[in-house]
């Protein structure tokens, strides 16, 4: 009786050893899938928040044009604000398109294909976002030029021009400093790429195990 009980216990233990690696693989698949879904959710949140701030930017410069709080005297002084509003609207459209494109379902049965689709869509949308951001930034750099007539009136031609140039240069310097510090970099694509690499390594190990069997 004790021998039969011991034999049954060893058989249960052997079955556990055989099923544990499979359970571990399933757990890893599930972990990678949920982590990828979390990254996609964060990408969409980032796009959504950027859209909100961009919309607020349009409202601000709309108020500048409509209310003229800076007492601009000439129509051309409103040109940078108009350009900023127009290009920011284009930027929002690009963001909304990217928001829609990265909304790809991560399927458990074909996780590698799903991740490849997400990475491709995100890389494509990020390229468009960066292209659309350039004219917005350039228009913003030259917004201080709108105050040039006021600076000339208060400080004279030479000083007024130098003040306006100094403000433009300061904006450019702040932009490049922020870029160098990594404020405009996104880690989501690299994270999704790591998820894909881990999944491919796991699949490769499964293939080797199947060959050994």
Give a verbal description of the structure.
This protein has 213 residues and is an all-alpha fold. It has one domain. The protein contains 6 helices and no strands. α1 packs antiparallel against α2. The two termini are 35 Å apart. The mean pLDDT is 80. It comes from Runella rosea. This is DUF3278 domain-containing protein. Keywords: Membrane, Plasmid, Transmembrane, Transmembrane helix.
- What structural class do helix, strand and pairing data support? mainly alpha
What is the string of helix and strand elements? HHHHHH
* Stretches with pLDDT under 50, minimum 5 residues: none
Quick check: average pLDDT?
Answer: 80
Protein name: DUF3278 domain-containing protein
Keywords: Membrane, Plasmid, Transmembrane, Transmembrane helix
Write the layout of secondary structure elements.
Layout: H1 2-67, H2 79-101, H3 111-141, H4 148-155, H5 157-180, H6 188-212
Helix pairs in contact: 1-2, 1-6, 2-3, 3-6, 4-5
Keywords: Membrane, Plasmid, Transmembrane, Transmembrane helix
Protein name: DUF3278 domain-containing protein
Organism: Runella rosea
What are the defining features of this structure?
213 residues, mainly alpha, 6 helices, elongated, plasmid, membrane, DUF3278 domain-containing protein, transmembrane helix
Summarize the structure.
The chain has 213 residues and is an all-alpha fold.
């Amino acid at each position: 009786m004790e021998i039969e009980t011991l034999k049954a216990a060893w058989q249960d233990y052997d079955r556990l050893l055989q099923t544990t690696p499979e359970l571990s693989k399933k757990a890893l698949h599930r972990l990678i899938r949920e982590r990828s879904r979390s990254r996609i959710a964060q990408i969409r949140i980032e796009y959504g928040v950027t859209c909100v701030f961009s919309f607020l930017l349009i409202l601000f410069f709309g108020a500048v044009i409509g209310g003229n709080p800076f007492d601009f005297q000439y129509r051309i002084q409103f040109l940078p604000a108009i350009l900023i509003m127009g290009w920011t609207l284009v930027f929002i459209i690009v963001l909304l398109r990217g928001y829609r494109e990265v909304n790809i379902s991560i399927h458990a049965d074909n996780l590698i294909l799903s991740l490849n689709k997400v990475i491709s869509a995100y890389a494509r949308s990020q390229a468009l976002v960066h292209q659309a951001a350039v004219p917005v930034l350039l228009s913003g750099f030259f917004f201080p030029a709108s105050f040039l007539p006021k600076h000339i009136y208060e400080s004279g031609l030479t000083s007024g021009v130098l003040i306006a140039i100094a403000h433009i240069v300061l904006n450019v310097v702040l932009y490049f400093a922020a870029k160098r510090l990594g404020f405009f970099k996104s880690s989501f694509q690299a994270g999704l790429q790591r998820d894909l690499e881990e999944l491919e390594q796991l699949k490769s190990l499964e293939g080797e195990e199947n060959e050994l069997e």
